[in-house]
Structures are given as structure tokens and as C-alpha cells.
Amino acid sequence: MNLTHHGGSCGHSCCLRVENLSVKIGADDILKDVNLHVHCGELVALIGPNGAGKSTFLKAILGQREYEGVIAFSEPGQRSKKPRIGYVPQSPAFDPSDPVSVADLFACCMSRRPAFLGLGKSMRQTVLDCLSRVHGEDLIDKRVGTLSGGELQRVLLALALEPMPNILILDEPLSGVDVEGMQTLMDMLDEIRKNYDLSILMTTHDFSLLRQYADQVVLIDHAVLIQGPPDRVLDSEEFHRTFHLRGGSV
Ligand code: ADP
Ligand code: MG
């Protein structure tokens, strides 16, 4: 992981601190001077137009992009620590005719045993325990390619929660998910952040649930245009200008 760990405190419990983060690709400034503190139990939504640098920001935190600036994580009583990061990528497309089941997917990711040998009894129980975190035990024998958008996101989420991370990162988890599925997924993230000691950082193009679920919203377009509580950002001139909205509210 490409994290630079610094001590220091911002007066809260465990915290992901991003300070003056800049990312260049070639000569282009993809991100410039981004600052963000995320505390344990907080859900932070990153929004912005296509190409704004949202995924790049997540990749810098994941250690997959070179950057300038500081990305640090600290917990109370400890100066700094290498965080465990759980990552739910933008929904991969699975072929509906592919025979791979949810159990096979877990077996590939969690076990050294070849998937064609099937799951041992104790491994199957471990997978069921993981799926129970997203209320998805009934999905274990379904083919991955036949899952709905919301079900697939829940399975990927269950995978990202084993082992339990300090920071959970999701890139566009709501895209391709119907309205009911979105609510279910956001309820699940809400439950997870309350039950476990973790921070959630997600990107989204869907603004309808942010007032209900997000603690902070960050509007970026290569640089931060505005950040703060959802009401402040979603009612701002910057938000309306960026998304060409006239009047009305989200
Ligand atoms: P977003 O997730 O907000 O849509 P991205 O972070 O994916 O935006 O991309 C931000 C900008 O960086 C885009 O202009 C994109 O073309 C560029 N970019 C991202 N990854 C690469 C790469 N590997 N090589 C060149 N340009 C890239
Ligand atoms: Mg993206």
C-alpha cells in the first residue's frame, strides 16, 4: 500500500486524513490540492461530473495511483497505522450463462482449494457468515451472472468486509441498481458503519439518498468545489452550476 503514515491528530477518533492530495497523469492535473478528513463511523460521498477524478481519488487511497500530498490513517492511542482497506469496484459484468456461483466466487477469493472441488463444510459456513453481514445467505448457490445489480453489490460488499476493514471504499455502488435496491444497499452500509468501527467512502451519481445517509458530501471537479454536510453541498450554487440544475432541490 502506498500510504504515507503520519501522526498528528484532528481531535477525533480514528481518522483517514487526506491533505493537499494532487494526482497528475502525464501533464494533466487530474486532482489538485484535495483535503478531506473521514472519521470512524462516517459515510462520505464523493460526487462530481464524469471525468472529475472521483475514481482516481479512490485509487490513490488504494495505493494504485502515484500522488503528491499526504494520505494517512490514525487510531486513538496509536500514532499511525496501516489501515485495512475493503474495496468494492465498479460493478464488473458477469456472463449470465457462466456457471460460477456466489459460493465459487468466495472460494476463489478466500480459499486456496480449487473452486471445482466445491466448498468444504466449514468454508461454506464461513461464506454464510460473510453473506449474513449483507443479509444475503440465500444468495450462496445463485449464479453470479444472474444476480440483480443490487444483489451483486451486496455480494461484492460481503467480500470486501472479510477481513473487516478500517476503511470501506465503494466506486459507484448504486449504478445499475434499482430504486428499491439502492435503499436496501444504503440501509446495509448504514448498519455496517454503526456495527463495525469503519469509515465508508463512496462515489455516486445518485444524489437522492445523500441527505438521509451521508455525513459529508464532497463535490469535486479536479479540485474540491465544495464539501460539508449534505444539505450545504446539495443546496449550493456550486452543485447546481456543476450539474446544470435550475431551481428545485435534490
Ligand atoms: P471519474 O471517476 O470522476 O469519472 P476518473 O478518476 O476515472 O473520473 O478520471 C479522471 C480523469 O483522469 C479523466 O479525464 C480520465 O480520462 C483520466 N484518467 C483516469 N485514469 C487514467 C489513466 N490510467 N490514463 C490516462 N488518463 C486517465
Ligand atoms: Mg469513476
Terminal residue distance:
37 Å
Radius of gyration: 19 Å
Q: What is the number of beta strands?
A: 9
Bound molecules: adenosine-5'-diphosphate, magnesium ion
Short description:
This protein is of the alpha/beta class and 250 residues long. It has helices at 54-62, 102-110, 121-132, 149-160, 179-195, 210-213, 230-234, 237-242, and strands spanning 15-25, 28-39, 43-47, 68-74, 85-88, 167-171, 199-203, 216-221, 223-228. The protein is 30% helix and 24% strand.
Describe the structure.
The chain is of the alpha/beta class and 250 residues long. The protein has 2 domains: 16-94 and 149-154 and 165-243, Rossmann fold (3-Layer(aba) Sandwich), CATH 3.40.50; 95-146, no CATH class. The protein contains 8 helices and 9 strands. The protein has helices spanning 54-62, 102-110, 121-132, 149-160, 179-195, 210-213, 230-234, 237-242, and strands spanning 15-25, 28-39, 43-47, 68-74, 85-88, 167-171, 199-203, 216-221, 223-228. A 6-stranded mixed β-sheet has the order 5-6-7-3-8-9. Strands 2-1-4 form a 3-stranded antiparallel β-sheet, with helices on one face. A hairpin with a 1-residue loop joins strand 8 (216-221) and strand 9. Helix 4 (149-160) runs parallel beside helix 5. Mean pLDDT is 89; it is low at 1-8. It binds adenosine-5'-diphosphate and magnesium ion (MG). The site of magnesium ion has 3 residues, from helix 1.
